[in-house]
Amino acid sequence: MAEPTSAPARGLHPAFFVLITVFFFWGFLAASNGVFIPFCKSHFNLTQLQSQLIDFAFYSAYFIGSLILYLLSAASRMDILNKIGYRKGIIYGLLISVVGALVMIPCVDKEQVVPLTATQQRIEKLAVDQDIQTSDHLFRFHRAADGYHLFVQPAARADSVIHLTAWKSMLSSTFSYNAKEDAYEARFDVQQLPALLSFLEQQYHATVTFGYFGLILMALFIVALGFALQQTAAQPFAVALGDPATGAHRLNLAGGLNSFGTTIGPLIISRLLFGPGRGSAAAANIHAVNEMYILIAGLFLAVALLFIFARMPEVTSHEAFETTRRATGAMNVITAFFLLIVLGIVLNFRLPVFIIGIVGILYILIRANQSAQRNSEGWGAMRYPQLVLGMIGIFVYVGVEVTIQSNLGALLEKPGFLTPDGLDASKIDPYISLYWGSLMIGRWTGAITAFNLSRNTRKILTVFVPFLAYGVILLVNHIKQNNVVELLPYIPCIVIQIIGFFWGQEKPAKTLMIFGVLGMLAMLVGLVTHGYVGTFAFISGGLFCSVMWPSIFALAITGLGKYTSQGSAFLIMMILGGALIPPVQGGLADIPAIGIHYSYVIPILCFAYITFFGYRVRSILQSQGLDYEAAISGGH
């Protein structure tokens, strides 16, 4: 159990208000990936699966960080984090994130400039919807379903270019104005490409600048590795900074600020990348990312220094670390599958190895529990079926929460889905913000049960709080000068969620089943519709994901006794789902017969398992004589 060696018995420690700013930035950066992914897809000429490697780098760091702590503790037979203390754990985590933020700056600046003619093979091998543009952004080569296109952009610069007679022999069509791109567009055949590249290089000294996407992923991994250590230590530390009886309330407050960070993060990142005028993605400047990471490095360093020099309670855990040889072996095999996926990424066999890796990880978890049922010695927390099924539940929950929004940008850019020509990447931030704001709506509502309120008061707040949170979403979008009228038709989705809360009766298993079914129905509606109905159906997945983390977590660790801490560590490792499931959906989206729209069958499968877990765990806990109807609160 986490205990402070010196802390006030009552009241709130001033350090708590510093600590919760860290919760804010966790949410801020994680949600910002929804805007950063489509931007990087355009800037680095990526496929949809490749763009999802941002999530892979970010969320795999949580798995690797937690795994390192576990394996070191198992090898040394002592809890490493307990030995250094939660306060120092936060400090080290902050400093690791500072290093990652500072490493990001040279990674962003690292570029290679090559002659345009040297890019011929790359242009020929472009996948559908991929681009390569010249260093001056004047010319852009695009592969569409109907062939290759050349864009001259913007239109104001194109007038002196498109009327040259030399174009006739190098293009298969004349230039026409594309209003969505604000550019002139013409088609060409692959046989015409060598002459076209040679002409542009000689006439306009055209070059192409390639960034190093792998370096960006490395820096993002380091930042998230620090987050993993921070999160592992921060939650028990937050409980200790005040009256222990109100520790859950402080976690809810910290979680609420985390959700607010997820809501405004996409809006701020969009402004940094595309500017206040919301220019096109093709004209955006990735070097603007440096401003954000310089600021983040400075803020994290300041908070770390404050934790170093301020008078704060030392919080440690007095629970003994129990070695579990067979459970450690299972985690090693899971790690081997993870390394197989990394190898597949390097060797460019991405989609098959992601699928093999996920199937392998799930198989190991199921087999581990089956083996533990026959002989529990050495399995520790994995002897409990609710824990193993909950690990799979956390895996698919984090996966579905992340994959819905990470692929949403590509879906909104698809012509004919929301708008006839598709949205530019610079204009998707209101919808990403609404998605993460939907999680804030549900989490603020779910947090009502943490407070000692009368039944009627809770009912009133269950209706009022969702619309209060929705008002916050509209307000921050209004401040960003987005058109909030476009977000008003979302209200019926919020009403459906409120009905779901009343139907769930504050019971985690029942709530999980209801929200799992509603999530499946929402995804099905999105699959068979388009426009605002389809868009808001997919976004409403955030509403139904909102209380799944605390519900799954609480049900999975119920009845674990002395293995509760170990079970919690295993559950946190399963954040790995956020790294593996989005690339699978991205890989399906790259298959022309499926496409980005129908790739949303993946979230249906995830919600289906979560529904199954809510149903199955009730009978498991009942057979153990345990209460599965405890009230839920808080959020991930």
For the termini, the CA-CA separation is 21 Å
- Per DSSP, the total helix count is 26
The residue-averaged pLDDT reads 86
The coarse overall form would be globular
> In percent, how helical is the residue content?
55-70%
Q: Which band does the percent of strand residues land in?
A: 5-15%
Q: Tell me the number of strands.
A: 9
Oligomeric state of the chains in view: single chain
Poorly predicted runs of 5 or more residues: 1-10, 631-635
Features:
636 residues; disordered C terminus; two-stranded antiparallel ribbon; 9 strands; 65% helix; alpha+beta; disordered N terminus; five-stranded antiparallel sheet; 26 helices
Task: Describe the 3D structure.
Helix 1 packs antiparallel against helix 9 (213-240), helix 1 (15-43) runs antiparallel to helix 11 and helix 10 runs antiparallel to helix 16 (429-446). Residues 1-10 and 631-635 have low confidence and may be disordered. The strands form three sheets. The chain has a five-stranded antiparallel beta sheet with strand order 3-4-5-7-6. It has a two-stranded antiparallel sheet with strand order 1-9. Strands 2-8 form a two-stranded antiparallel ribbon. It has helices at 15-43, 48-51, 53-76, 80-84, 86-109, 120-124, 155-158, 193-204, 213-240, 247-274, 289-309, 325-346, 350-374, 385-406, 408-413, 429-446, 455-479, 491-504, 508-528, 531-539, 541-545, 548-557, 564-573, 577-589, 595-598, 601-623, and strands at residues 2-4, 111-115, 131-133, 139-144, 147-152, 176-178, 183-188, 207-211, 315-317. Strand 4 and strand 5 (147-152) form a beta hairpin. The radius of gyration is 25 Å and the shape is globular. The chain is built from 26 helices and nine strands. The protein has 636 residues and is an alpha+beta fold.
